[in-house]
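Supplementary Methods, section 5.1.

A reviewer requested that the exact input to the structure prediction be made available. We therefore reproduce it here, unchanged from the version used in the analyses.
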Amino acid sequence: MSATPDSLIVRLATTPDEVRAAQRLRYRVFVEELGGDGPLVDHEAKIEADAFDPFFQHLLLIDTAKDEVVGVYRLLTCDAADAAGGFYSESEFDLSALKASGRKLLELGRSCLAPEYRGGTGMFRLWTALAEFVAENEIDILFGVASFHGTNIDQLAPSLSLLHARHLAPADISATAKPYQPMNLLNVAEIDRVAAMKQVPALIKAYLKIGGFVGDGAYIDHQFNTTDVCLILDTERLNPSQAALYRKDRNA
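The structure derived from this sequence is encoded token-by-token as follows.
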């Protein structure tokens, strides 16, 4: 049975069992599908977890017809990052500019959908709930790691070069990869831009479409078999229609 819009709801996890359901979905996507691994991954229980999970809030897309978690986002506020000893992304990117901006930050991570829910209303439902969270908590900047599958830089060079040329974040809200893998590897005038954009994962393209940026440089994550970029959304620099969603009632 396929999901209908009426059977999908989004809410924050409130129990350890709900967090584990999110971790099971993450295992299905990041470990089984994409070949990732990690020190806290439990292959026997099929759980993808890390040390930051207790500090994140877990936004769940639930198919009520199956009583099953079919999508997830995890959210880390500034206060929670202080309790955790920093943001998750700081293991891959220097966030000094973002942290010094004085703006209210929200880190996003581990976004995924079960395969059978991709291309439908699921991600729209998650994004709508995320926008409500951002508005209610008066978040100024959203950021997080987003991944290309694989670590072959030569294959990814056209896409990375295009992102660097067209979507590089302003210096005052940028993040820099550590260790630093340059993204401006090719002359953009000489690459097939259509083919390069087709190689960009759908989630990254969606963020860029609404006015998002990428940080400076990529991080090669051999453990997760990915090449990561830092995505950054400034609610004051989004496309006007999107900015209204993320900043509703701020000036009321």
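Strands lie at 8-12, 57-63, 68-77, 93-94, 105-113, 141-149, 176-177, 213-214, 219-221, 226-234. These observations are discussed further in the main text.
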